[in-house]
What does this fold into?
Amino acid sequence: MAVRLLAYEVADLCLGKPPLSPLSAASATVRDAVSELKSSGESYVSVWSCDHSSPPRKNDCGECRCVGKICMVDVICYLCRDENLSSPSSAMNSPVSVLLSKAQGVIRHVEPSSSLLEAIDLILQGAQNLVVPIKTNSRRKLQKSSITSHNGREFCWLTQEDIVRFLLSSIGLFSPIPAVSIDTLGIISTEFLSVQYHSPASSAIGAISCSLADQTSVAVVDDEGILIGEISPFTLACCDEMVAAAITTLSAGDLMAYIDCGGPPEDLARVVKARLEERGLERMLEEFTISPNVPSNSSSSSDEESLSPTASLPRSGRYNRSSSYSARMVRRAEAIVCHPGSSLVAVMIQAIAHRVNYVWVIEEDCSLAGICDIF
It folds into this structure.
């Protein structure tokens, strides 16, 4: 198994990769980041330390460096800070650097010749994205759409999802482990982020930020510990910055309904506006236009052997999302769940199918047992 994996290089995973839109850490603002996210259609935009207006220096390999990544969740959490609620316009004009994570090692630069095992080691050490320089005269011909160019240099961007997808294509090499249940493997974590259904959504801001950093989610549970849904950064990343107003004024349960309907339901849009006025946050109303939308029904996902991969939890009072406010790729509103007896390969397929790094683990009564992280 190790011999075969050693034969693969990082460059083998770069073929067909879409680019992440770059921003300059020196000049871009939060508003620029929002504009780039909306226009690019990507969930993330990369932030670089190089000056894109200057010509590259000959033989200077260290001039352009990716220093972080930003998604709409970073913007939303920043706007929800107490000091920014009364003046969102000023917050939007802040330098983009205020959104960058302080965590070390999230972004790592690697060479195209690095082995797949080296890439896996970096991911296990906490790296979420691997930036790969591509030489124009490389023997591997990459599609033009898979390149991000900076001052004459070209880069590809690999994620944890890319690594998992690649491993799934060779899942037979790991036999018999993929067929073993996640309970037997001991990979169900009982440490997870959660918020009560009726609690203010604003009380979950810290948890949302942590879940974004950990690439997990925030479970929404009732008083009996039953999983009702989730507030997922993967979902919020597909929304607009105006969701900050909803988080400021709604409960966790109402926030799920707000973001589940491809735009806020008319009644919740009125509630948000009224509560902003009550709290004297008219400037937030001026900055963001909150327009209601008409929800539509959609399906969701659940476990593997006994249920279809797209089946939903047998739980009433759940909300469904068919789309979001932006053109970016969206995923279903229902929490992705499995059971302790689910096999590892089934859980991996569920996560990849819904483009998340985790799957919630529930008991037969829908009580939340834990979470299974793919990495």
